[in-house]
Amino acid sequence: MADRLTPERRSWNMSRIRGKNTKPELLVRRLLHAKGYRYRLHGKAGKARLPGNPDLVFAGRRKVIFVNGCFWHFHDCRAGQHAPKANATFWEAKRTRTRIRDADQRRRLEEAGWAVLTLWECELRDGSALESQLVQFLEAEGTGAGN
């Protein structure tokens, strides 16, 4: 049986996990750029910062995209429902706060007239479905909310 991680080692491991420019985010960015879409990164809409710092901002279309990791944002897929055994109470509370914060930021964006699409890490495996979903969201008229 493998040795358990010390709290210091786990803390070091967790500090290395990125919040920006993740592999799933880069995949979406490359796909959209290849399709000719241009965007701003990480919540910048001109000089103002948007609630939640969306990963991709299409200011002219008033649309934003979040690319969320299933575990970190408590998605209802298998990866998102994995519950760590070590320090379980801490992780449950942390992930629940993230889910609540995400919902609040989405509400604030929609109230300000922005359409919001949330992509989940588990949904990025099917490239053609992802491309179709992105184009449909970006080409739709108005600010109808996405996923």
Largest β sheet strand count, sense and barrel closure: 4 strands, mixed
Beta percentage is: 5-15%
Count of helical segments?
5
Given the helix and strand composition, which structural class is it? Answer: alpha+beta
**Average pLDDT figure:** 84
Tell me the overall shape: globular
Unreliably modeled segments: none
Element-by-element helix/strand order: HHEEEEEHHEH
β-strand number: 6
Residue share in helix: 40-55%
Distance between the termini: 41 Å
Strand order of the largest sheet: 1-4-5-6
| Rg estimate, integer Å | 17 Å
List keywords for this structure.
about 15% strand, about 150 residues, alpha+beta, four-stranded mixed sheet, 5 helices
Any overview of this molecule?
This protein is α+β, with helices and mostly antiparallel strands and 147 residues long. The chain has a domain at 35-51 and 72-140. It is built from five helices and six strands; from the N terminus they run ααβββββααβα. The chain has helices at residues 7-15, 23-34, 78-81, 88-111, 127-139, and strands at residues 40-41, 44-45, 48-49, 56-58, 63-68, 115-120. The protein is globular, with a radius of gyration of 17 Å. The mean pLDDT is 84.
Q: Brief description of this entry?
A:
With 147 residues, this protein is an alpha+beta fold. The chain has 5 helices and 6 strands; from the N terminus they run ααβββββααβα.
